[in-house]
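Q: A reviewer asked whether we had any structural model of the full assembly, not just the individual parts. We don't, so I'm hoping you can provide one. Inputs are below.
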Amino acid sequence: MKIHEYQARDLLSAYGVPVPPGRVARSAEDAARIAEEIGLPAVIKAQVLVGGRGKAGGVKLARTTEEAREAAGKILALTIKDIPVEAVLVAKAVDIRKEYYLSVTVDRANKKALCIVSASGGVDIEELAVKEPEKILKHYIDPLRGPDEKDLREFLSAAFPKKLLDQALAALLNLYRLMIDKDCSLVEINPYAQIDETTLVAADAKINFDDNGLPKHAEVEALRTAEEYSREEIEAKEAGLSFVSLDGDIGCIVNGAGLAMATMDLIKLFGGQPANFLDVGGSSSPQKVLTALQILTRNKDLKAILINIFGGITRCDDIAKGILIARDRIDLPVPLVIRLIGTNEKEGRALLEQAGLEVASEMTEAVKKVLERAKAGV
Amino acid sequence: MGILIDQNTRVLVQGITGRDGSFHAASMLEYGTKVVGGVTPGKGGQEVHGRPVFNTMAEAVAATGADCSVIFVPARFATAALREAADSGIGLIVCITEGVPVLEMLANYHYIREKGARLIGPNCPGLINPGKSKVGIMPGHIHKPGKIGVISRSGTLTYEVVYNLTLAGLGQSTCIGIGGDPVIGTGYIDLLELFETDPGTQGVVIIGEIGGEDEERAAEYIRRRVRKPVAAFISGRTAPPGKRMGHAGAIISGGKGTAEAKVKAFREAGVPVADRPDQIPELMKEKLGS
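A: Here is a predicted structure for the entire assembly that you could use as a starting point for your response.
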């Protein structure tokens, strides 16, 4: 899960990492008032979860209250990468002398927490990582024993001058503490800005959370914004389905994430375009199949639906029951192709065939058929 | 032969009194697995499917001589269950549980290693040595004893591939679901190493997916160290970047973890990659014949 910069700043601040004064605004009026309160000049920044907002005109400097109002108005009217801007952060503009980079994340290959710092922070950090990787410094933290202050100080001294070292060390220890406390997958400060001889502040921040950790942290779950997921994705999640919308027109309902991806891939391989990823999960109840079909059929571009089930924990007869209930309750506007195999296949197949529905048993055959029927429209 | 488990493996089920634990304990017993007991704190003294339930792993291991544990507890209890298993001195821990926080797994991984145990999973279907022992949730009947090793990050996609192997007459020596999470106990390379020296295995099928770079590392390892034939399948070629595709580990981020990169790495290492799951048997047969 991702959160907005203004939310990330609040968390950093709560963990003792200094940030420039600032608050979130949802109207030009609010923005002007906040700018006046915190003191001008102020920087007005679009709060969207996608990158590249600066290049899209989503960050502006305001020297007067009037400029703040105008800038916020313009930014709130923007749509950045299809996301309408609904909030801006109004923060006191700081005079940045030097931009550093500081982050902690999870290194899945080495199975350790990974700290990354650079004395060349800023917007081009990713490019820097490719072109001059030697300017990106890495240090691992043993997840069983936690950070070793002496090691961290030595590591940071390669990027920070002596007079900033204590602050950088305190910040990094706090980032790590925040990551562990809240089950973050990334805590990043970029730029980590030097604003005078002796002061560092987090001029921008990004925090991502491990979805598996969310059940432990209601206070983090409360920060969720609707923007990251479509209405369908949220509805699917509540029903225990894993769903991602895509651009194509062949809907898929599959059990298991790997098989669901493979089904999408096969649709593409045979010349079609998948409309979605949908994993009904294990032990699928008929209700889940009904909800899945309801979500899929809302898509106006949909031309056909493929249900691909390899029963293990999932029982084919449960899936068949769900399909029959759905057929009674909703008007299926497009052709439906069903493939069932595995646990209780015979029972499931019998239920569907009695109702006049055809059932395939091979995946390749089913994918070819759904594409044919999408083309024919029946 | 086969690796990690066989007909003599003595299995404890952690969470045996729960819905999933109890159901799959029965299914494992039916398959012929030596399930020797279970553990649920506070329920010691009961019996499930005629097998004794213990309060702690330490008691259970002492009483049954078990050498393998399979975990079905809910995610919020998984770390405690994993550590208790590691502390009990058991050699092989299989964690079926999905949804264990990644940072907990980072610490658990090192904890378990330091105790000298091997972990499979979490978020995995377990493993099976066909005809001998099943420690997990896969449907046993689609498997057939034979000489192909299978390593997979997926559940049902593994069944799909195994089903096709069996249809084509290619039985399996051991099939292992390593798990769909970003941090897992045992990866491709560990298992390739075991299969390479297992006299019961002639070839290995790898089923990978988007996210991370484990497939790339496995390809490099195969190029340098594996003499037995290997064939692969990668799912997620149509997955968009930045979106988690069901599995916590299946996400393309920062341009890393794409299916293209994995397919390319395998092909460069001389490992044929199937476009469809039902093509794997022929790729394997070609490789075995060459």
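A: Points you may want to mention in the reply: Chain B touches chain A through 60 residues (CB under 8 Å). Residues 24 and 242 of chain B are 35 Å apart (CA to CA).
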